[in-house]
Amino acid sequence: MKNIRKEIEELALLGPLPSEDRPDLELMERYEALYRAITRPITDDEARVLIGLFGKDDSFGMAASIRNLIETAPGWPLEDCLRDSDNEWIADLRDRAIRGGRLQPKH
Questions:
Q1: C-alpha distance from residue 33 to each of 66, 74, 106 (Å)
Q2: Residue 62 domain flag
Q3: Residues 71, 73: Cα–Cα separation, whole Å
Q4: For a disulfide at 89, which of 31, 37, 54, 93, Cβ 3.0-4.6 Å?
Q5: Domain region containing 74
């Protein structure tokens, strides 16, 4: 993939957002610093990277922030990113795209 900024590559290297049931303040501060360094909009390739950060919960609000960042990609919604129906954040992104009229519901 091309068009990936250093901050997003570093987020990807950190892996999925940490769970709220095992807080790590230092790690959360690193995620937040990298997130805040990203200017909007992001590229479609960057959205594809960021979609892999979702864990099992809100990660102290960071998951919602990442979701909102993903939605700034010019080609959003990217159907290839919305296939994981088991992840609540990806399901939420899909539902928001449908409600916003940018994606047709699958029947």
A1: 13, 24, 37
A2: yes
A3: 6
A4: 54
A5: 6-99
Q: Does residue 107 lie in a domain region?
A: no
Q: Which amino acid is at 10?
A: E
Question: What number of helices (H) and strands (E) belong to the chain?
Answer: 5, 0
User: How is 36-83 classified by DSSP, letter by letter?
Assistant: HTPPSSPPHHHHHHHGGG--SS-TTTHHHHHHHHHTTSTT-S-GGGS-
Angle at which helix 62-70 crosses helix 25-36, to 10 degrees, equals 20
In a domain, 104, yes or no: no
* pLDDT band per the 50, 70, 90 thresholds, residue 74: very high
Q: What SS3 state is found at 105?
A: coil
On whether the CB atoms of residues 31 and 14 are closer than 8 A, the answer is yes
When divided into structural domains, the chain yields a total of 1
- The answer to the question of residue 27 being in a domain is yes
Q: What is the DSSP letter of 31?
A: H
